[in-house]
Structure formats: structure tokens, C-alpha cells
């Protein structure tokens, strides 16, 4: 066959062969577009397209540029290998190396394009291109093998095998050229190795495209499995949440629901399972009285219109059984609707109870005339309630007032104390804040208020919030001031009275002493006999009445002096036996006259006491006088005395007289008080004896103890403190 015919036939074969990678590239791109875009397919499509372009260029070179045949073949082969590796990297997720590969393809393409001017391929360039192609295809095969060797061994063999065979073929060709000097380069007029190269490329590409399809299939299956799992999870969640859920499509047909919906609304499951519409559902509820006594069709139209006219809404519905439902509706992106039904019966009960509690609290505060205040880190200033503003008289402010403005309203005399008490509470020095001070209202008038509060503290002890109440105590303060003024006036009057009586002691006693003295002289007829016997009786009456009046005046003056603090003590070491003996000598005649026995009992050893002896005698005589007065004939009076260092000292008068009722014992210690009884009205007295005794012993820092039983007797003890007992003991009698 002539050379020209052979050349034509080989070029024609290459052109026909080029159609295969071109068609496969088009199919790969269409598949890529169908799958939504896969970077690997784009790289591999570019590799197939480049294979078709290379075959066309080789055919053209065999006709017109035979010297460029080898350069086009080696350069195209390297670029195809690089693009094939790029697709593999993109498919397996190694996208970091795609830019360097694209740069290598560009360099090789520019070098190959220069073959028209420089058709000879240097050995170093030949080796670089061939080794690059071997490395790229071999690396692609290794990567595929590593990807599928554990999970899909068949896929690993199917994808990695052709690539490794192709790389081995290229390496063998390179070794033949290097080791066999007689081997010629490619024959542009008919070298079938070009066709073999194309076949290997196509075989590799087909395997990898199938790998992509298998991967996409697996990904789709995995996605479907995940979607199915997610759908089951969502279904399980919807079925187990404590709310009713139903979903309607754009035509308002029920497409999904949970069992809680049937339970909450009391709807039969068979009614829901057949996919009723919103209108049918509303009609069913209206016919069974869920919406009350309404026209069924009008209610269906009204509720359907509400659903269609609102993208989302919330409503509450009271069911005939008394339960309360909350209904939330939202339109979906596809035109459908999702409805959520929640039983809020308990929530409504809690809200009602809370409202009642708040009303009760507000009523209690209003009834107590108190307002509420609060400040904290999240409040700008001090929150004051409406009632508080009414109490203080603040009208020109909103719900809060600046702290500085509040301080300006506090009375200047109360401000420092108010700040100090507040600071003490903030620093933890007091458990509660409680203070009364004056504050000025908008009318310029000051009102007395009582401010109470408690601070909440964080972990560091910082008060971040504080609240409390404010009450109007103006009237109470005014009453306290009035009471204080009345008390001061009474005390002043009492002191004036005491001072007057104490001062009048000499003026009262002097004329009485004269009356008593002269009546005594006349009674004793010192200067001669009285002319008539009746005058002697009159003089005795005058003398006894004067003595009695002097005793009363002395008691009154002593009580007044005690109240005025004008009694002075003349203290000395006193033997209580002498005090008792002196009292018995004075009271003895009266006791014998009433047939009352007097006895003594001294606790030994007996120590001396530091006291005013005259006042102790006065106390004892008063006690003995009362005992004799209220003890009937044949009765007995016992006088005890004790003075033990470190234990105590005093004396006690005990009788078996008429006694004192328990409810009258406290009154007996009040001045001018007498217990009304049949016997007491038979005896005179002013009711000053016991109060005077208590006043005199209290001046000694002691105390008086009264114990009595009605109709059994009375015991009165006068006690001195331990500090008044001397270490000196009296001699035994």
C-alpha cells in the first residue's frame, strides 16, 4: 500500500477513535449536570475531552507536521494523567492539591503548543513528562485502593486495577526506550500504541465514572436512610410530646397528626385516619357542641376564614368539660398549616391563684397603708409604686425616681442617719433595714414614713437587688409627740407636787407639833387641873388625832420625797437584831391589845449590813403595823431576819391574818390603794405603807416580795443585795 494511503488510514482511525472519548466526555458532563454538579466528573470530563483533542492533533500532525507527533503525544499524555489525578483527588476529597495540578497542566500545555517551533523533545523533558504521567496515574490508583480496600474490595480492584495497569504500561514503555537503543520513537504514519493508550484511558475513565455512580448511589441510600431515621425520630418525638399536633396541606386536608390530638380533643382515631379536612373537623366539633350553641355552617366558615387570613395566630378555647386549650397555628412554606393544641387548664388555675394572691397582697398593702419600692442593678433609679407616690405626695415622676432626687426629699436632720442605716444593711451589719424619717412631698410638706426593706446578695455578698415597703406614720408620730408632751407634763407636775410636799414638810409638821405638844401638856395637867372632866377627854382626842395626822403626813411626805428622789440615806453598819427589837418594842403594846403573839427567828451567823438604820426601822414598823391591823385576836406574827455573806440579807414578816387575794396583790403596792374587805373597812389607813416600804428598800438597791393567800395569811420579805452585807458578824445573843 502506498505511504500516503497508509497515512490517511491511520489518521482516519485516530479521528474515528477520538469520537469515543468525546462522546464519553459529553455523557460524563450530562451525568454531572443531572447529579447536581460533581467536581471529579468535571476533571475527568476535561481529561476525556483532552484525549479527543490529542487524537485530533495527532491525526493532523501525521498529515502535515510529522516532526511534532512525539511532542503532542507525550505532552497530551502527561496532561491527561494530571487531569485524571485531579478528578481522583476531587472525588476523594483532597481538594488542596487541585490548584498545583491545574498549574502543571497549564505549563505542559504551553510547552506542547511550542512544538511547531521546536519539534524535538529533549530527553530530560521526555523523562519528566513520562515520569509525571506514570506518577499521576499510579497515585490515582493507589488512592482508589486505599479508599475501598476495607469496605468495598471489588470496587477497589475495579477502580484501582486499570489505573495501576495503565501506570505499569507507561513505565514499561519508558524502560524500553531507555534500555533498548534500537527502539525507535513513535511512528506518525501508523503506531498502534497511540490507540492502545487511548483505550487504556477510556477503560480507566469508564471504571471511575462507574465508581462515581456507585458512590452517588451509596450517598443517596445513606441520605435516604438518614432521612428515614430522622422521619422516625420526628414521628417518635411528635407522638410522645404532651401536646396535640396536626398538619394540613395547602388544600386544608389532614396529612399528619399524633395520638395526643385525639386525646385532647376527644376525636375518634378513625375520623382522623381517613384524612378529613379543616372544614369537616370544625363541623364535627360544632355539631357536638364544642363551640357552644352556634350555627354550624356559620362557625365552619368563620373558623376557616380565620385560618386562611392569618399566617400565624394564637387562641384559647374553653371546652364543655371545663378544660382550657391553647391553639397555636402557623402557615408552612408549602401553603399548609401546622396546629399545636396544649392543655393549659392547670396553668390557668395557677394563673388565677397567682392573680388572687397578688390581689390579696395588694389589698393587704393598701389596707396597711403601705407602698412598694425596689432598686437593683437592672433598675435605673428606685422603683416606687403608685400607692407609695400617693403616701409621699409625689406626682411629677414615672414609676422610677433617681436616688439623688429621693435623698433631696429626706429631711436634712434625718438624712445622715438614713444613709448610715442603709450603708450598714448593705455591708451586712444588719439583717433588715428599718428606719423612720421625714420626707418632703411635692406640696412642700414633710411626712413621717417608715421604710423597711431587705437586700438580696450574690455569692460575693454584694447586694444586687433590694425591695421593701413604705408606710405613713405621720399620725402615730404626732400621737407619740403628744403623748411625750403629756408624759413630760405629768412628770413635771408630779415632781412639782413632790418638791412642794417635800418643801412643805417643815410648814406642815410645825403646827402639828405645837398642837400635839400643847394638848399633851393640858392632858397631863402640868400647870394645874382642868376645870371640867370633859375637857380632858377632848384634849386626849385632840392629841390622838394630831399624832394620827402627823403619821399620815409623814408617810405622804416620804412617798413624795421618794418619787422626787429627795430621800437621802445615812448609811452605817446595822445589826438587824436591833432593828427587829426596836420595831417590836413600838408595836408590842398594840399587839398585846389585839391579843396577837409576836415571835422572832434569826438565822445564824448574822452579819452586819450597810444601810440607813432609821429607814429599815420605818419599813419594819410599817410591815408590823399592817400585820397587827389585819391579824384577828389569837393570831401570830413571826419576824425572821438573816444576813449571810455571799448569799443575802433582809427580814420577813409573816402573819396568819385575812390574807390578800391574788388579783389584788399587785394593786397593794400602788400608793393610796386599799383592798375592799369587811375587816379592812374597820381600820383606818391611807394605803401608803407597802408602797413606801418598797420605795425605801429600792433606794437601798433592794426589793420587796409579797406572798399571800386569802383567809390564810400574808408573808412580806424585804431583801438587801449581797453588796450591802458586811464581813463582820454580830455576837450571838
Automatic annotation (TrEMBL):
Organism of origin: Pelagibius litoralis
Alphabetical keyword list: ATP-binding, Kinase, Membrane, Nucleotide-binding, Phosphoprotein, Transferase, Transmembrane, Transmembrane helix, Two-component regulatory system
Domain of life: Bacteria
Domain PAC: 433-485
Catalytic activity entry: ATP + protein L-histidine = ADP + protein N-phospho-L-histidine
Protein name, as recorded: histidine kinase
Keyword Phosphoprotein: yes
Domain Histidine kinase positions: 503-724
NCBIfam families the UniProt entry points to: sensory_box (TIGR00229)
Predominant place of localization: membrane
Amino acid at each position: 500500500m502506498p505511504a500516503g494511503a497508509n497515512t490517511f488510514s491511520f489518521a482516519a482511525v485516530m479521528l474515528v477513535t477520538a469520537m469515543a472519548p468525546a462522546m464519553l466526555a459529553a455523557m460524563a458532563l450530562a451525568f454531572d449536570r443531572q447529579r447536581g454538579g460533581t467536581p471529579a466528573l468535571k476533571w475527568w470530563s476535561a481529561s476525556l475531552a483532552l484525549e479527543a483533542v490529542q487524537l485530533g492533533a495527532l491525526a493532523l500532525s501525521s498529515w502535515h507536521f510529522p516532526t511534532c507527533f512525539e511532542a503532542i503525544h507525550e505532552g497530551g499524555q502527561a496532561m491527561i494523567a494530571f487531569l485524571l489525578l485531579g478528578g481522583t483527588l476531587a472525588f476523594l476529597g483532597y481538594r488542596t492539591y487541585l490548584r498545583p495540578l491545574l498549574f502543571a497542566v497549564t505549563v505542559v500545555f504551553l510547552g506542547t503548543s511550542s512544538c511547531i517551533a521546536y519539534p524535538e523533545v529533549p530527553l530530560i523533558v521526555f523523562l519528566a513528562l513520562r515520569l509525571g504521567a506514570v506518577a499521576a496515574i499510579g497515585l490515582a490508583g493507589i488512592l482508589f485502593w486505599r479508599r475501598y480496600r476495607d469496605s468495598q474490595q471489588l470496587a477497589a480492584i475495579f477502580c484501582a486495577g486499570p489505573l495501576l495497569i495503565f501506570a505499569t504500561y507507561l513505565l514499561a514503555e519508558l524502560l524500553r526506550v531507555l534500555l533498548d537503543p534500537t527502539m525507535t520513537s513513535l511512528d506518525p504514519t501508523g503506531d498502534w500504541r497511540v490507540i492502545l493508550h487511548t483505550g487504556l484511558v477510556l477503560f480507566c475513565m469508564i471504571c471511575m465514572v462507574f465508581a462515581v455512580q456507585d458512590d452517588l448511589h451509596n450517598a443517596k441510600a445513606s441520605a435516604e436512610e438518614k432521612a428515614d431515621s430522622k422521619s422516625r425520630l420526628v414521628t417518635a418525638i411528635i407522638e410522645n410530646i404532651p401536646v396535640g399536633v396536626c398538619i394540613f396541606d395547602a388544600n386544608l386536608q389532614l396529612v399528619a397528626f399524633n395520638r395526643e390530638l385525639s386525646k385532647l380533643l376527644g376525636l375518634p382515631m378513625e375520623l382522623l385516619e381517613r384524612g378529613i379536612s379543616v372544614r369537616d373537623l370544625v363541623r364535627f366539633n360544632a355539631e357536638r357542641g364544642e363551640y357552644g350553641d352556634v350555627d354550624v355552617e356559620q362557625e365552619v366558615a368563620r373558623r376557616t376564614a380565620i385560618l386562611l387570613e392569618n399566617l400565624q395566630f394564637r387562641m384559647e378555647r374553653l371546652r364543655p368539660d371545663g378544660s382550657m386549650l391553647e391553639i397555636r397555628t402557623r402557615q408552612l412554606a408549602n401553603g399548609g398549616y401546622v396546629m399545636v393544641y396544649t392543655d393549659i387548664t392547670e396553668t390557668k388555675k395557677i394563673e388565677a391563684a397567682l392573680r388572687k394572691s397578688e390581689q390579696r397582697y395588694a389589698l393587704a398593702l393598701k389596707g396597711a397603708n403601705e407602698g412598694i419600692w425596689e432598686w437593683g442593678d437592672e433598675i435605673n433609679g428606685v422603683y416606687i409604686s403608685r400607692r407609695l407616690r400617693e403616701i409621699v405626695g409625689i406626682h411629677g415622676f414615672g414609676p422610677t425616681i433617681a436616688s439623688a432626687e429621693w435623698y433631696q426629699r429626706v429631711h436634712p436632720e434625718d438624712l445622715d442617719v438614713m444613709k448610715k442605716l442603709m450603708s450598714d444593711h448593705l455591708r451586712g451589719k444588719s439583717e433588715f433595714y428599718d428606719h423612720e424619717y421625714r420626707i418632703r412631698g411635692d406640696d412642700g410638706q414633710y411626712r413621717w414614713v417608715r421604710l423597711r426593706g431587705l437586700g438580696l446578695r450574690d455569692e460575693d455578698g454584694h447586694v444586687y437587688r433590694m425591695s421593701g415597703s413604705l408606710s405613713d406614720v405621720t399620725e402615730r408620730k404626732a400621737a407619740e409627740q403628744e403623748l411625750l408632751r403629756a408624759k413630760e407634763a405629768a412628770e413635771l407636775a408630779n415632781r412639782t407636787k413632790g418638791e412642794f410636799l417635800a418643801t412643805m414638810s417643815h410648814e406642815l409638821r410645825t403646827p402639828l407639833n405645837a398642837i400635839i405638844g400643847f394638848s399633851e401638856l393640858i392632858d397631863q395637867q402640868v400647870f394645874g387641873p382642868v376645870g371640867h372632866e370633859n375637857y380632858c377627854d377632848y384634849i386626849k382626842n385632840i392629841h390622838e388625832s394630831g399624832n394620827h395626822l402627823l403619821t399620815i403626813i409623814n408617810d405622804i411626805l416620804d412617798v413624795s420625797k421618794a418619787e422626787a428622789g429627795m430621800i437621802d440615806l445615812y448609811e452605817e453598819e446595822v445589826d438587824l437584831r436591833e432593828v427587829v427589837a426596836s420595831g417590836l418594842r413600838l408595836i408590842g403594846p398594840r399587839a398585846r391589845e389585839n391579843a396577837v403573839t409576836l415571835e422572832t427567828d434569826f438565822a445564824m451567823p448574822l452579819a452586819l449590813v450597810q444601810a440607813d438604820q432609821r429607814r429599815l426601822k420605818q419599813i419594819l414598823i410599817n410591815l408590823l403595823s399592817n400585820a397587827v391591823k389585819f391579824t384577828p385576836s389569837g393570831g401570830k406574827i413571826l419576824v425572821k431576819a438573816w444576813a449571810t455573806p455571799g448569799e443575802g440579807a433582809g427580814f420577813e414578816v409573816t402573819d396568819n391574818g385575812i390574807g390578800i387575794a391574788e388579783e389584788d396583790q399587785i394593786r397593794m403596792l400602788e400608793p393610796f390603794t386599799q383592798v375592799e374587805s369587811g375587816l379592812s373597812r374597820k381600820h383606818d389607813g391611807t394605803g401608803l405603807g407597802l408602797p413606801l416600804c418598797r420605795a425605801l428598800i429600792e433606794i437601798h438597791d433592794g426589793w420587796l416580795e409579797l406572798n399571800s393567800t386569802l383567809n390564810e395569811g400574808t408573808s412580806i420579805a424585804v431583801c438587801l443585795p449581797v453588796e450591802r452585807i458586811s464581813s463582820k458578824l454580830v455576837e450571838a445573843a
